[in-house]
Every structure is written in C-alpha cells, then in structure tokens.
Amino acid sequence: MISRIDHISLAVKNDNFSKAYDFFTKILGATKGSHGRDKYLKYYWEILRFGDLSRIELIKPLGEGSFLSNFLKKREGVHHINLETPDIERTRKMLEEKGIPYFDYRVLGDAWKELFIHPRDAFGVLIQIAEFNPDDWLAPSDLMEKGKKWMVSKKNNKYELTFKHPGGGKVSFDMDKEEINKLISDLKNLIDV
C-alpha cells in the first residue's frame, strides 16, 4: 500500500529560507534536487537530498493567501510527511474501508496524484500520500542512465557498484577487489542452482 517515505516537508518563513537552505546544504551536506512554484496554493518548494536519497522539502509562501500563512503564524518546522504509494485509488479505497478521513484528493495528470490525512486523524502529523514517478522529481545528476539498472566503474583500486534505486535515482557502493570477487561468486552460485 505504501512504498516508502519520500520526503519530510519543512515550512520556513521567507526571511529564513536562505538560512535553512544553507544549513541543510552547507552544514549537513544535502544537495539540490528539483524545485518549483505552485501558483494555485502560492508556495515555492525545493527538494534537498542526502547521500542515500533521503529527502527533505523546504517550502515557503509566495505572497498573501498562501496555504502556508496560518501554519507559519504559529511556527516553522515540519509541515507534513510524504508517503509514496504505487496506486492512489487503491489507497483511497482502503482508507474509506477503514474509516480514515482524508481531504484534498487531487489528480494532476499522470505526474502527481495525492490526498492528505489531517493531523487529528494521524497522531499529530499531516500525512500526504501521493502516487508519482520519483525520478521526475530528482536532479538529472541523481538519475541512472535510461534503461540501465546497474553500472560498474573502477577508480584507483576501488570499484563502484551503482544500482537504480526503487525510490528514484541511484545508490552506489564502494567495493574492493575481494568483495567484487565474492559478489561474482555469489551470483554464479545463484544462477547455477
């Protein structure tokens, strides 16, 4: 039903946005992902990722009438947690069957389908459940070459094994020659069974 946590979204006031961005990128080492503006809800979002493709989203209002205005009057901080689902309709039906209320069900073409569970129904946290292709929301440098599921490269006396990550993008492992030979042996044994 739920594939994984995609990101944690942090609401930040406009005058603190660059400080928050610098904190996560310059101090904690996050790298820039995708970003955009939502003219309807009047906010800007930016995805920042960490080494294993853990992600946070910084969001800030874009003028009067932003959906973030009331939230930011009280505090800055965690706004919502985004959970990825492979099938929003199935998730929606399950919530209805279990009597879990949701709101703001929206289908924005094939790119994004979402709904929300209010904090009063989710133990104090706003939950966003969405169906989407994770690769659509990552920087090109985070993506595997189209059609590939793995890559192997050599740097000095180390080998890098890179796989397509199920949450979008790629994940890499540094291995020495002994580990590579063990992996080859394990794969051969598996195939020969």
Describe what this molecule looks like in 3D.
- There is one protein chain.
- This protein is 22% helix and 38% strand.
- By secondary structure, the protein is of the alpha+beta class.
- The strands form two sheets. Strands 2-3-4-1-5-8-7-6 form an eight-stranded mixed sheet. Strands 9-10-11 form a three-stranded antiparallel sheet.
- Strand 6 and strand 7 form a beta hairpin.
Write the layout of secondary structure elements.
Elements: E1 4-11, H1 17-27, E2 31-38, E3 43-49, E4 55-61, H2 69-74, E5 77-84, H3 88-97, E6 103-108, E7 112-117, E8 127-131, E9 150-155, E10 158-164, E11 170-175, H4 177-192
Parallel strand pairs: 1-4, 5-8
Antiparallel strand pairs: 1-5, 2-3, 3-4, 6-7, 7-8, 9-10, 10-11
Concise overview:
By secondary structure, the chain is of the alpha+beta class. It has helices at 17-27, 69-74, 88-97, 177-192; strands at 4-11, 31-38, 43-49, 55-61, 77-84, 103-108, 112-117, 127-131, 150-155, 158-164, 170-175.
Number of helices: 4
Average of per-residue pLDDT values:
93
* CATH homologous superfamily heading of the largest domain: 2,3-Dihydroxybiphenyl 1,2-Dioxygenase, domain 1
Cα-atom radius of gyration: 20 Å
| Structural class based on helices, strands and sheet pairing | alpha+beta
Unreliable runs: none
Fraction of helical residues: 10-25%
The ordered H/E elements are EHEEEHEHEEEEEEH
Total domains, how many? 2
CATH class of the largest domain: Alpha Beta
Shape, principal axes of CA atoms: globular
Tell me about the biggest sheet? 8 strands, mixed
* Proportion of residues in β-strands: 35-45%
CATH architecture of the largest domain: Roll
C-alpha termini separation: 33 Å
Largest sheet strand order:
2-3-4-1-5-8-7-6
**CATH topology title of the largest domain:** 2,3-Dihydroxybiphenyl 1,2-Dioxygenase, domain 1
Number of strands: 11
